Amino acid sequence: MSLNWNLSNIPDHMTTCYETFTGTPVEMEALVERVLFMGPNWSYTADKTAVQRMSVTTHTLLFALMDVGIGALTPFSVEEAYTRIHMTETACGAFRNTNNGPVFFTREDVKAHTGLTTNIGEKTKAQFHAHLTKAWRASLARKGQVVA
Length: 148
Prior knowledge:
Elements: E1 5-6, H1 13-17, E2 18-21, H2 25-33, E3 43-44, E4 51-54, H3 56-68, H4 78-92, E5 96-98, E6 101-103, H5 107-111, E7 117-118, H6 125-142
Antiparallel strand pairs: 1-7, 2-4, 3-4, 5-6
């Protein structure tokens, strides 16, 4: 099943969820032609004066929410979403990594995306805890710290 999302209900979603680059035609073309396997790709704006992509934070958050089983960020679910993401990152490592090391989600990163909706199936707390325990054990096994 495909992952579908709607960002339009996030306040100031064009600034929160997207990055825009304006440069020379050659610079912009180079970005558009560079295809990333698991990342947001650049595309031209409608007027072709800039290129735009979903921010890495928003893109990664979509997949983090799928992992923790939260399909929508509402004022009531933001704290639980952050808690689950934080627990997962503490147990298994950051969802985002750069050349400078891991980048962990902050409460503010998650809260800024209030209004985001997806077609992700919701996990109960018990289902999430079972999923996290399995993922944590697999993470430790990969490091040779426990037997899978």
